Each structure stands twice: as structure tokens, then as C-alpha cells.
Amino acid sequence: MTAEVMAANDTHWDPALSKLIASLKEAESLSNDQEIDFLQTLLESKELNALVNVHSKVAKVGRDDRLAPILSTSGMIMCEVLEQLSQQCHLNEDCREAFHLLQKPHLQSLLYAHDAIAQKDFYPHLPDLPIEMDEDEETIKIVQLVKSNEPLGATIKTDEESGKIIIARIMHGGAADRSGLIHVGDEVIEVNGINVEGKTPGDVLSILQNSEGTITFKLVPSDGRGAQRESKVRVRAHFDYNPEVDPYIPCKEAGLAFQRGDILHIVSQDDSYWWQARRESERTARAGLIPSRALQERRILHERTQRDVADGESKKGSCTSICTTPPGSPRLRSSSSTSSCRQPKTKKIMYDLTENDDFDRELIATYEEVAKLYPRPGIYRPVVLIGAPGVGRNELRRRLIARDPEKYRSPVPYTTRPMRTGEVAGREYIFVSREKMDADIEAGKFIEHGEYKGHLYGTSAESVKSIVNAGCVCLLSPHYQAIKALRTVQLKPFLVHIKPPEFDELKKTRTEARAKSTFDESNARGFTDEEFTDMVKSSVRIDFLYGHFFDDEILNADLVTAFEKLVNIVQRVENEPLWAPSSWVQ
Ligand SMILES: Nc1ncnc2c1ncn2[C@@H]1O[C@H](COP(=O)(O)OP(=O)(O)OP(=O)(O)O)[C@@H](O)[C@H]1O
Q: Where are the stretches annotated Disordered (predicted)?
């Protein structure tokens, strides 16, 4: 372009410059010769002409030939279209075809690649010419924002090296971000005419709090600033967070409160300690600060250490050594004992229910990356009902199968016990030898298994798969310790926590229904108060250990209401895109 511009200079003056030269001639009589000569030489100089030409060309490119993408969110729109199509698939062949087309990985990748490019700005930007500039002075920008009830959406800090007040972060979607005028790293020199040199961030904050109307910032722009790009990461929170009670958050007002199970859109992970996020359901809201995964992990480890120290102190004198299990080593037994301190001996026990079942507490539950998993017509996710023993998992499962036995099925369990009279192989149980079952357990072929009165019982992963492949919805109601074995990319289960109501309502509903305690096969009596108490306690414990794995929950107080909710859940699983671990979504 330079060559072209220079060539052009030999024959054409830039029209604006020609005009200036002409008016200079008219002004000859008004000024002294020296100044006129200087200006004439400058205006006719090749260098200035070349510069003006370059400026005009670049400005023209920016103005006329700019290829602007029509939109940069086609991926998001595709997701929304898929969501709507998924509800229409059963009605219309065209919808089904469009649904399948939009699910194709190469089409999705194409749209995401388009968005990634569309979001970039490849055109040069010429900075506005400063009105007046002192050669010795740094560039300064003056930014005016009108104060409203909305927070500014920026945090400040003292730069460790220079001691200057700088913009630490800009909250995505906040007032400062939307203004496009303030950037991370900008140095704050003045706020409303008050010099902030030597002041602390707290001092600056009180200047801001005491200001009314328009706030004027004098800032030195940072060098490496750039538009903040939103990340696309979505996570499921595995813990509750309240910035109000967090003593370490840099700014409580900038914090985002959330609860375990909430889906969060992480818009920025630039800061290794404080991420910016907004709740998925509040797409246009200003982002808020949340602890990063690394920070939260550290906190949990710290809390655990403190707790262990406190426990150690309180146990001093009563025991000589503290046994710990190394992190990540599961205590789930592959074949458990037949007795438990919490249950009568007569109940079939697939797992040891002693208090040692807290292996998951040793994992650090912070955030799990998730993505929308779209239903595949004819291939349904298994629905797994988890809950305290006796809460009603099997009752709900049986009712759903009775409603549509062709569609809902449960796998036939395996056993090593001999077949009894009246039993049919493959109906009540699949009967196998102990050697075979031991070998299959060893090979990891069972999603749950246990021992009762010297015989093994279990459910094989293969039997779940064959129900899924047959186009049926596989319903499972295993012991809660099977969650880890079940929650795999191969099975992609949907986990529902069946919860009991409070003790009084639990007792009332079960007594009115004359519900039989399932802890004792040979006894037709109802539940004891102790069993109800155990059920409530056990449910709290399951929630504590595995709460973050559940996709939904059902309160099983009134059976009819609980069943309706289950029907609603299975319909959603069959038809709607739902959040699942991102590793399950190719
Ligand atoms: N909402 C309810 N109201 C009244 N009775 C109920 C309700 N839910 C379940 N029951 C009854 O409670 C008893 C135990 O239910 P169920 O066998 O389904 O428990 P479970 O969770 O499968 O536990 P287990 O593995 O010990 O059998 C059954 O008699 C069942 O009919």
C-alpha cells in the first residue's frame, strides 16, 4: 500500500491538503513570511502527503469495505433451536431430520469456528487524535460515568511494584464493561478531581461512595488491554457460596451467591483465584466474583486440616493413634459383610453400611464442567433412583414399570444361590456359579454386588446396556454406594435422589398406607420409629456424600405426588437436553 501511496503522491495532492495550501496563499498577507514558508513546506512535503493518504485509505477500508459478520452467536442459537426441536421431534419428520442434522459434530464445529472468528476484530483501529498533547506527558484518558444504583462493576487494587492504584478487574456485563472505556491494568490518577496518589483502595472507594451524579476518572491506559472475551465454560457448583460471609473476597458487592447444583457460566478465568461467573438462568446479568477451583480446593483442604486437628485434640486421651485413609482410596467393599450395626440382620445387604462409607467426602467437590446432553431418539438414559433404604425407591420404580412395561424395564439381578421351586431362570434372577460371578466381579462387570447368607447377588453393567440398546428406559434402584460405579460415560445415567419427608410426616404417610417395613422379609409389620429415624438420618448423609451427583430429587411424602414427579422427570430425560458432565458430550 505504501508504494501505491507514494506513487500517487507524485501526481495528486490529497484534496484536503490542496485546500489547505490554497487557503495558505490567501492568508499570506496576514502572517509573517517565515511561518507561511514553514507551513507551506510542511503541507507540500511528501511525508505528510503519504501519511494523509495512508490515513484516508485505512479509514476508507474501515468505513466501506468492512466485512462484518451478521452474528457471532450461531452456536448458542443452534442450541436454542435444538432445544425447541427436541420437543417437536415426535410430531414431525422434518423436525427430526433438522434435529439430527444440527447434532452432527462437523456442523456444530463449523458454527463454533464461525463464532470464534466472528468475535475477533481483524480490522485496524486508529486511535482518536489527542486534542492537545504535551510531549513529556503520558497519555491520559478521562472517563465520565453516571452514578446509578448499579455498581460500577470494577475492582481496584494497589500495584505491588509501583504502589499505584490500578483497575484489578472488570466484571463482564457490568457498567464499566459496557462503557468499553475502562480496562484492566488502567492506572487511576484522579477520581472527581481528587488525586489518588498514595491513597489506599479503601480511600478511593469512599471517594466513590461519597460522589453524586457523574463520576470522572482520570486514567493512564494500560498497555496490553483488549476486549474481554467471554469463555463458554459451564459448571455445576458442588457447594454453596455466599460472598456476604466470605472474609477473603476482594469486594463483597461484586460477589455472586450460588447454591450447590446451580449451573454457572464461567465468563472469565483470567484471575487464578477469583473467577467471574453468572447463573446460567440469568444470561444478561452482570457477572459476579466466585472462588476459582484452585482457591476453593485450597479452602476445603484447609478446613479439613483444621477439623482433623480439632478432632485429634478432642480425642486425645481416648485413643493413641489416628488412622487416616489416603485421599482417593475408596472404602467401598467389593463383597460386603452380612451384618451392619444400623440394620437388622434379616435384610439383604448389598453393601456394608457402617459409618466407613464416606469415601466421597475425601474427594474435593468444587465445580464440575457440564454441557447440554441432547436426547437421542430411541436410546434413553437409564434413570437411577437413589435413597435411604426403605424410602420407596422400589415402590416408585415398580409403579412406573406397571404403567408401561414395554417401555420401562429393570435388569434381572444375578445370584449364586440355588434356584427355588417356582422360580424361572432369567425371570427372578440369572443363576450363575460362584466362580463365574467372582471372576466377573473381579473384571468390573457388575455395577453393584454384595453377599447375603453366603450367596452373591448383583446387577451387571451388560444387562443395563442391553435394556438401553433395546430402546427401553432402564430403571435402577441400587444402593447409594453404587453411584460411583454407575456414573460413567458409557451409561450416562440420570440420578434422582428419593428423599423422605420429616419424621412426623414420614410416619403418618407410611402408617396410613400400612406400608410394610422392607428390612425384614419375613415380617409383615410396619416400620418402627427407629427405622424412620434411621431413614431420615441416612438421607441427610446421602445428601452430604453424594448430593452433588444428583440431577433431580423427589420428596416421597404423598406417594401419588411423588409418582407424578417421577413421571415428569422421565419425560424430561426422554425429550429435553439436560446438563451432564461435559466429558459425556462429544
Ligand atoms: N410415599 C409413600 N407412602 C406410603 N408408603 C410408601 C411410600 N413410599 C413407599 N412406601 C412403602 O414403603 C415400603 C418401603 O418401600 P420400598 O420397598 O419401595 O423401599 P426401598 O426404598 O426400595 O427400600 P428397600 O431397598 O429397603 O426395599 C413399601 O411398603 C412401600 O409400599
A: 305-343
